[in-house]
Amino acid sequence: MTNQDNQIKEKKRFKVPHTFVIIFYIIILATILTYLVPAGIYDRVEDPNTGRTIVDVDSFKYVERTPVNPWGMVKAIPKGMVDAASIIFFIFILGGAFEMVQSTGAIDAIVVKFINKLKNKEKLVIPLLMFLFSVLGFTIGASEEMIAFVPITIMIARGFGFDNIVGVAIASTGAAIGFAGGMLNPFTTGVAQGIAQLPLYSGAVFRTVGYVIFYIIAVWYVMRYASKIKADPNKSVLHGVKTGDEVGESDELKEIELTNRHKGVLVVFLIGLIIMIYGVMEYGWYINEISAIFLAIGIVSIFVGGKGTDDAAISFIKGAKDITMGALVVGLARTILIVMQEGQIMDSIIYSMAGMLEALPRQITAVGMFIINSVINFFIPSGSGQASTVMPIMTPLADVLGITRQTAALTVTYGDAFSNQIIPTSGALLGVLAVGKVPYDRWLKYNWKLVLYWTIAGSILVAIASTINLGPF
What we know:
The chain is an all-alpha fold. It has one domain. The protein is built from 20 helices and four strands. It has helices spanning 3-12, 19-36, 70-83, 85-102, 106-117, 122-139, 150-159, 164-181, 186-195, 204-231, 260-283, 287-304, 309-322, 324-342, 346-358, 365-379, 383-401, 405-419, 427-436, 440-467, and strands at 40-41, 44-46, 53-55, 61-62. Strand 2 (44-46) and strand 3 (53-55) form a beta hairpin. Helix 16 (365-379) packs antiparallel against helix 20. The longest helix has 28 residues, at 204-231. The chain starts with a helix and ends in a 6-residue tail after the last helix. This is Putative membrane protein.
């Protein structure tokens, strides 16, 4: 093949658009749909038993269309930024705070020690860390919280000769495994079962079996990719993307002295994480409180580490600057939901999807519920938000179709957890990608097959649950 042929082939090769471009195309599509999809709304009422806002399943009505014009679409972008402000500023604060901690050298010192300790046992690192993060997923329903751990998991991954994708996957996919299992997850399992009036956290044995299956699939997927790029870094989906300085290959790392100041910083960091997890579990802390915890960790750490006030300011600004693009992606993606809400088409889409289920054969209705929940998750990427919106519809529908309510609750859990790993409307996903400096399009290229494998496994499990009438009812 001549050089000219190679050049022609290179020109014809499809180039994936920039992340901003992909999301903007979706915004345009959502805007067009406001002219094509009939507008409709459900009434929201407060559940007297739980105090949650839920959908009145019998209240859907079509209303006059409120299509979003081009000027309205453009105005929706700053509205999306404002609507996602808590996550955007969480990302900025976390980036700045972690840079303050990292500037003390404590994180580098402990990560290098960890890598050198396990340099001949690196095949244990990915399964072990993913298991630990999965525990956070099925207990406290960790999602946005994983953003805080990504800088550390990336440093570990880079130290073993892997790329940022592996670092992000260890934390994000690890938590998603537990989120999908959902044995004690208060945000999907808890809310869905509460609305369906099921005993809280019932069906745990079946969910645990699913969790083990999802864990095996995910660990195999991540380890296969990690082994491939360690053998040939050019096969990384991030090849050509600037992601920052790496710690280095595991066989080239030199021990960094772990000083008393480093130990002090690590103690501050550990105490902060313990306070964060306790606050999330006991007091329902969310973005604001977690942001405050990490800001405090950064400020205290930099002084314990022997740095001054100017060092604190410079480090914070550097850390926040490095993740600006990723933080803005979160706000841009939120625009998609703003457009659909202003066009009043979100409820119409949900109503139509629920109606489609009634037309499916009995044998595959449960699987249809799962697939439809996966699609709805694009529009409602919050686990508790989706459960609160969908379960009031799915519960009576399951009763009518002869499907157990436990199976219906399972479809919500799986529908939320899997697709959250690739949808651009998930603030948690875009947050970890922002901190990990992984462009969304590259993550999608890497991760879509894992979501497909999970979806196949989930469909089989849902079909089994429907066949055995997973209960108690």
